[in-house]
Specification:
alpha/beta, four-stranded antiparallel β-sheet, 14 helices, about 15% strand, globular
Length: about 475
């Protein structure tokens, strides 16, 4: 009888302990968000580029969920970053043109984390502050971002925009100007490591926004440039022969920046592991847009081709997500904020227009989404009207890219059978039904957003924006 009572007592203790463990609150995950500038999805080792040297990111992919169809809706800096911060599409937040100011009343991602007890930090490039009308972009990009315009971030080592990576400035929380030592991405990584060390006992969200691999492409530290100086770069087949040498020269420098950033990612991952934070840290690696780099004889971004719109997106969260898996559904910038908040068990503001992919990632929900919007409400700067820029709306699905301009259907590519988009089949009788289906998908997205697909000047008037330089001249 004594033994039976003893056993019953032990079972009761174990039962109570198990109940208490089940009742323990789930620890809030940390978030480390690495945002690069102008890194296209095609240029990482693990996706098949055998020339670019990215061992740390290749390893990260093995430990993460890789989003194979991540798309930049307006593939250019300010619009993409504003969608990241707000969870909204560009015609809703209003930043469809570079160097315009994000409204302070937008409900942004860091504000939600902060309201729920998180420490918030931002290091690097911002590019959503804008500047007063009448000031040049270059002047505006050198101004400090005042505390009321930091959208919920407290720790602050930020420059609005600079691509002078070896002579790079930032402003601190008190608007005091400093200079990063050496190549700015390496110095910013060291600052990020210190931030994580100081906040290891608190839940924190930290954005590390690097300026590279954006041009200029010849400014990475010499040791990284040396890795590529004698390499005969293998070009994408859609780069014409008369652009080949120029493309190879620029891509060598592009890859050098990428390898430098790969080392930065390695340092961040190493410190997260050293601090014992790996299991409960959401780590994201992505980019705001890509770069044409002479594919289709085009340069830079804003354009609807894969080299411009298709971005890397890698999400690591060991506590909840299976390593080495893929998420193939279409995913774009407005979806980032709700997905991170969802993975963090935090409320998603009603203002958010993107989708929460948490259930999809955890296998508890099947999202009904098969198309991502790609758009250019107003072409500007490097792709202004005089440079061939045009307004467009389109959809990218897992198989196709379909785009209209103001004159009607413009592009249709079968991306599975034509991955370099060298055969435009818009209007082709064999693709008649496919084009019609994509037109329906596009119309549904535009109708949902109230997008009437008007000429660019209509949106400039609506938001009371001034054109830069001669951007308005057609």
């Amino acid at each position: 009888m004594k033994n039976i009572l003893l056993l019953a007592g032990l079972l009761l203790i174990v039962s109570c302990k198990s109940k208490k463990e089940l009742e323990k609150p789930i620890k809030a995950p940390n978030v480390v968000f690495v945002l690069t500038d102008q890194w296209r999805a095609q240029d990482i080792g693990f996706v098949g580029n055998e020339q670019v040297i990215t061992p740390a990111i290749d390893e990260l992919a093995k430990e993460s969920v890789v989003f194979t169809n991540a798309i930049s809706n307006i593939p250019v800096c300010t619009p993409a970053r504003a969608s990241l911060m707000t969870g909204k599409y560009p015609l809703s937040h209003g930043l469809f043109y570079n160097d315009k100011p994000l409204r302070t009343d937008e409900n942004c991602i860091a504000e939600v984390y902060k309201e729920n007890g998180y420490q918030t930090g931002y290091i690097g490039k911002w590019h959503i502050n804008g500047h007063p009308q009448g000031m040049t972009n270059m002047q505006g990009r050198g101004l400090p971002i005042t505390a009321d315009r930091r959208q919920g971030f407290d720790f602050w080592k930020v420059c609005e925009t600079t691509h002078n990576y070896n002579n790079s400035i930032y402003f601190d929380e008190n608007n005091v100007k400093h200079k990063w030592e050496g190549y700015d991405a390496i110095a910013q990584t060291k600052e990020a490591v210190k931030y994580m060390q100081a906040n290891k006992e608190n839940p924190f969200v930290l954005f590390v926004a690097y300026g590279p691999p954006h041009a200029p492409y010849n400014t990475a530290p010499q040791k990284y440039q040396d890795m590529y100086k004698d390499m005969d770069i293998k070009l994408r087949p859609n780069v014409p022969e008369d652009k080949a040498e120029k493309a190879k020269e620029e891509i060598r420098g592009y890859y050098a920046h990428m390898t430098a950033l790969d080392d930065c990612v390695a340092e961040l991952q190493k410190e997260i592991k050293n601090l014992g934070l790996e299991e409960n840290t959401i780590f994201v690696f992505t980019s705001d847009h890509g770069d044409m780099l002479y594919s289709h004889s085009e340069v830079k971004k804003q354009k609807p081709w894969e080299e411009s719109i298709h971005i890397p997106f890698i999400l690591k969260y060991p506590a909840k997500l299976k390593a080495g898996t893929q998420m193939t559904k279409m995913f774009s910038f407005p979806d980032i904020m709700p997905t991170l908040l969802g993975m963090s068990n935090l409320p998603i503001p009603e203002s958010v227009e993107g989708l929460n992919y948490t259930g999809q990632l955890l296998g508890t929900q099947e999202l009904d989404v098969d198309a991502a919007l790609i758009t250019c409400p107003v072409p500007f700067h490097q792709w202004k009207y005089k440079n061939g820029g045009r307004e467009y709306r389109g959809v990218r699905t897992e198989k196709y890219t379909y785009v209209k301009d103001l004159n009607g259907p413009w592009l249709l590519y079968d991306n599975l059978n034509d991955p370099y988009q060298m055969n435009n089949v818009v209007g082709n009788e064999a693709f008649k039904n496919i084009q019609a289906d994509l037109e329906v998908k596009l119309k549904a997205i535009l109708d949902k957003q109230g997008d009437q697909f008007l000429p660019g000047e209509e949106y400039m008037k609506k938001w009371n924006y001034h054109w830069d330089s001669n951007d308005s001249i057609k």
